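step 4 of 6: structure.
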Amino acid sequence: MKLEPEPVRGFRDLFGEDAELLSLVMKKAEKLAERWSFERSFLPTVERFELFAMKSGVEIERTMYVFLDKAGRKVSLRPEATASAVRAYLRLLRGRPKPLKIFTIVNVFRYDEPQYARYREFYQADFEVFGASDPFEDAELVTMLHEYYEELDLPHVIVIGSVRALRSVLEEEGVVGKEQDLVLHYVDKGLVDKALEVVASKARNPERAGEVIAKLAQWEGGEEVIEDGKRLMKEMGYSYSFEDVEEVLAYLPEDVKAVLKVKLGFARGLAYYTGLIYEVKVPGFPVSVAGGGRYDTLTEVYGWERVPATGFAIGLDRTALALKERGRAYKESPLVIVLPIAPEARKEALAVQRELASLDVRSLLLTEKKSVKKAFSYASESGARVAVVLGRKEVEKGFVSVKNLVTGEQRECRREELLDCVANALKRPLEE
Amino acid sequence: MKLEPEPVRGFRDLFGEDAELLSLVMKKAEKLAERWSFERSFLPTVERFELFAMKSGVEIERTMYVFLDKAGRKVSLRPEATASAVRAYLRLLRGRPKPLKIFTIVNVFRYDEPQYARYREFYQADFEVFGASDPFEDAELVTMLHEYYEELDLPHVIVIGSVRALRSVLEEEGVVGKEQDLVLHYVDKGLVDKALEVVASKARNPERAGEVIAKLAQWEGGEEVIEDGKRLMKEMGYSYSFEDVEEVLAYLPEDVKAVLKVKLGFARGLAYYTGLIYEVKVPGFPVSVAGGGRYDTLTEVYGWERVPATGFAIGLDRTALALKERGRAYKESPLVIVLPIAPEARKEALAVQRELASLDVRSLLLTEKKSVKKAFSYASESGARVAVVLGRKEVEKGFVSVKNLVTGEQRECRREELLDCVANALKRPLEE
């Protein structure tokens, strides 16, 4: 029997530039967390199904990996990290000083139809703040997202709004519960006509509500669009006036405001958002690369006390893909390759490799016996810029040959001068 | 209904020092891979069950998470990374220059009884080399493991041997297939008597075989013990003479040899090892923290051409736990805390936070409204060493107050001199 080497549908084997790019965006997310003092956490990949069902409804089972474990527990592979973070908060962190800022990098799973930028396993960097009622925290989070994409030098727009705009109008019109969620779902999917049908059949004042919701769902622009929204709400006699969005904007630095697009009737997939929501879009890239918002009542959904909370997730695969689309392929080649071209030179070659590695020089050791020609062909395929060549003669004399693989220049150096000689061949200091 | 906040049995919520330590050992493993030029990869968490069953036998199902996905595929959560690496090699990497060195950091899953240092989800750093027939590669890998634990400053012993010792004796005695595996399994578990029972009933020359296997299973020591082993094999008329172990040792640097313990009749759990095997033990820690070996025939088990290969996995949770046991708790506190103590100071406080973060200073921004007293109590609980305090007056005057939270010293600085002032309060340069 011959193994079929394809992975399971929707899963991926990443190597080379794809893996390096994903690793790069992952490390940058870690750095972001460290600098802004978000505490690291590791959370389970497998959780009880009810953790997700209580939060998002049992329909979520359709798009999740759900199975019975050997003890008969109905468990799921996590489709996102927030639910686990909230559970762990309730279990372990309620006594900690607030606001409490945590982060985690996770692989998450969705049983969706695989398509461009949508996989069945993907990676997220998840940032959550518990015990944070203040819009100033949302301003911090939006600023962090901006800094993250600035550092990656990835052009981006942050679409921002509040679920309270649509929800408060619907509330005042008596459209509540599942029907309210359905209107937001349609608006989120761009199906405004379908949203308006629900409004037409359920609202106390269908005409007025329909007009406002149609406008909210359509209107977007710079900060100034909020004034239009406030005027509209006031004229039509609704009480909400974008105060939550305005307060966050009041704290945001000018360079963050410059990338904002305010969307008055903004709705995002997840039903548990209670206020400000936002998404990061990269121009020309079909799906959002990050998103978040405020969820002040999720702990209550879980039957616990109210804990105001807010957070975002960075889609690491999508961010990596958006970078790749902009031609930002990225490959970490070794800088130096160490070539023992005689068996007697191997022990010394390993010592040379260790010396280079100890200085954090990316260095590759040739470990198979190869002819000199094949050794140099391996060297050039590796992408290394300099080769340290050790033959029997060199080792006996206490020398190494150092060759610049780009120019072809080669010189002999005393073994004690290895690092300077390599640095010289690289034409830059080694420990910069 | 109130959510039960415990994770599923055997799974963990890690925060604080436990999470920091795990992250530390993970980052050091990444660094090791980068310096030694192992190529990064990401491999699927979910694989077809047959990938593991072909390699390890269907009995492995007992200790694995196996389930049917929505399309009726029998899939598993990976119990280790090597099988996926081999599959991906066969799919994508056969044309690459050899030896090909890759690595990945993965979460893996085993349905074992949870106990100390054994969890149902845990983390591994996996290093594999394909197209590597030469023992020099094994010498590189063992040296890397030593460097890794040296850098963590964790005392360690590397137990080393070859499965060929026991297997070649059993082969020559006609003990093959499942029975041969069973003998190795018993020796691995320390059940030498049970191993000898199998030998007694199956070997062509039970007495001779029993005597040699009993000695091999017992004898261990420094490099010199190999001479004893060679003498024994020769005297008893077996053909194996530890040549594979000797060749690796010939390449190893002295400091690596100093931590070796050669175990003549060494056997490790996994049935697919074909030659050199090794494990890293930390004195006083009950389980091995890393292990690896040579598996030259695994691709043949999968019905493909032979690809000599060798590799190791670092048990990241166990390594973190071994560090913790030695009192090496490790907590990344913020260095600086930014305290806006008036609403008018918040925007400036966010600017200060950004400035510090941009220099990689771990800095924490207070985002909730608190009294001055509560703000300072939050500051001291955060572990920060310096507070930057901004009130209305400070902002109006273009000043900040910088307070050393250890000594209580406080001084006012001009906003433009923030960084120097903080550096001074920290009594060390900021961008070191």
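step 5 of 6: annotate
 - The radius of gyration of chain B is 28 Å.
 - The CA atoms of residues 245 and 428 of chain B lie 50 Å apart.
step 6 of 6: archive
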